[in-house]
Amino acid sequence: MSTAQAGGVFHRARSRTLDAFPAEKEGEWKGPFYFILGTDPQFGLMKAWSTGDCDNGGDEWGQEIRLTEQAVQAINKLNPKPKFFVLCGDLIHAMPGKPWRKEQTEDLQRVLRTVDRAIPLVLVSGNHDIGNVPTAETVEEFCQTWGDDYFSFWVGGVLFLVLNSQFYENPSKCPGLKQAQDQWLDEQLSIARQRNCQHAIVFQHIPLFLESIDEDDDYYFNLSKPARKRLADKFIHAGVKAVFSGHYHRNAGGTYQNLDMVVSSAIGCQLGLDPHGLRVVVVTADRIVHRYYSLDELSEKGIEDDLMDLIKKK
Question: Where would I find the Calcineurin-like phosphoesterase domain in this sequence (predicted)?
Answer without folding.
Answer: 69-250
